[in-house]
Design a protein that fits this description.
By secondary structure, this protein is of the alpha/beta class. Among the domains are: 34-157, Rossmann fold; 165-304, NAD(P)-binding Rossmann-like Domain (Rossmann fold, 3-Layer(aba) Sandwich), CATH 3.40.50.720. It contains 17 helices and 10 strands. Helix 6 links the parallel strand 1 (67-72) and strand 2 (106-111). The longest helix has 21 residues, at 162-182. It is globular. The mean pLDDT is 94.
């Protein structure tokens, strides 16, 4: 085993992960008996009693107001699929790291050894008093929709499934700027979304909310319709005004925008069949639906989910600022308007968009504060802020 670990550590990714990426640090010193008596017994009892009498004080006298649970069951981890809770932990640690680095939000990775919807919901509800928000992560569709909906109904703290809404916020922000580059209003765009899983459904819904003209959504069986039932059937009732049938590639003929979220591939011929001045977001990782260099032969704006090409659609541009803003005003939930406000704020960080610069870098120091301010302001307007 020792030799095996040494071999693994030759890979810099393994070396960085050795011992994990997180630790807990105290915020106050314990230097002597007086410090101990205040930090623990007997001083802590006075604080406990006050919170028992006025539960809202937990936000002022514990870490709850600035801590998020990052919860996964390990069933849809990155592009790796159902690898289980233990193997999901490096990703959840990474998420917690990004919360802290970009939003100064403390978070705890929690990987649960259950996949039943009832068990997941019950477990998170029981954990919720320890947290100011719940970030759901890498829970497979369609279960993720029910888990989030039930938790939002049951809890009075923000519940946010990042695979859905983080992707949606960043995609909308990038599309707003891409539309500006090609000189088209959102309402005139015809969009094809490949993928009707968690991110595909959320991206479609936020684009509809933002006023995009028409959207056709496809999955591995082709364009979805109302006969599918469930989440897909409901989505079909709100989309595809043109009544298109058939494959993703057939729908791309004359389309203005392609957004890939399916892990599938599209041909160069299909991208070439799109309208002039088209926009291609090939977001599957690690392999985009079409090679970006090939897409650029035909599309005016191209984005991917990768960091080695221009215009990376990265969820880290959204979730730290969204939770920072929600926690700052002790929001009861994250509303649809708050998500759109986050996208608008993120898009506005780019003052003069170009084809290779429709979305800011995650390392732009303006991103998280700008998103947080917009989310907090919208929470107050929506009446879900406590302070």
């Amino acid at each position: 085993m020792t030799a095996s670990l040494e071999t693994l550590d030759l890979d810099p990714a393994f070396a960085l992960h050795r011992g994990g990426k997180l630790e807990i640090r105290s915020t106050i010193p314990v230097r002597d008996a007086d410090d101990l008596s205040l930090a623990y017994t007997p001083g802590v009892a006075r604080v406990c009693t006050a919170i028992a009498d006025a539960p809202e004080l937990v936000h002022d006298y514990t870490w709850v107001s600035n801590v998020v649970a990052v919860v996964s069951d390990g069933t849809a981890v990155l592009g790796l699929g159902d690898i289980g809770p233990a193997a999901a932990m490096p990703v959840m640690e990474g998420k917690a790291l990004l919360f802290k680095e970009f939003g100064n939000v403390d978070s705890v990775p929690i990987c649960l050894a259950c996949t039943d919807v009832d068990e997941l919901v019950e477990t998170v509800i029981r954990l919720a008093p320890s947290f100011g928000g719940i970030n759901l992560e890498d829970i497979s569709a369609p279960r993720c929709f029910e888990v989030e909906a039930r938790l939002r109904e049951a809890l009075d703290i923000p519940v946010f499934h990042d695979d859905q809404h983080g992707t949606a916020i960043v995609a909308l922000a990038a599309l707003k700027n891409a539309a500006q580059v090609v000189g088209r209003p959102l309402g005139d765009l015809r969009v094809v979304v490949a993928g009707a899983g968690a991110s595909g459904v959320a991206v479609t819904r936020i684009l509809l909310n933002a006023g995009v003209g028409d959207i056709a959504v496809s999955d591995s069986k082709g364009l979805i319709d109302e006969e599918r039932g469930g989440v897909k059937g409901a989505l079909a009732r709100e989309t595809n005004k043109a009544g298109l049938r058939g494959s993703t590639e057939s729908a791309l003929a004359g389309a203005d925008v392609f957004i890939g979220l399916s892990g599938s591939t599209v041909s160069e011929q299909a991208i070439a069949s799109m309208a002039a001045g088209s926009i291609v977001f090939a977001l599957s990782n690690p392999t985009p639906e079409i090679d970006p260099a090939i897409a650029r032969r035909h599309a005016q704006v191209v984005a991917t989910g990768r960091s080695d090409f221009p215009n990376q659609i990265n969820n880290v541009l959204a979730f730290p600022g969204v939770f920072r803003g929600a926690l700052d005003v002790r929001a009861r939930e994250i509303t649809e308007n708050m998500k759109v406000a986050a996208a608008d704020a993120l898009a506005a960080v780019i003052e003069a968009p170009t084809a290779d610069h429709v979305i800011p870098s995650p390392f732009d120091p303006r991103v998280a504060p700008t998103v947080a301010d917009a989310v907090a302001a919208q929470a107050r307007l929506d009446g879900v802020a406590r302070i």
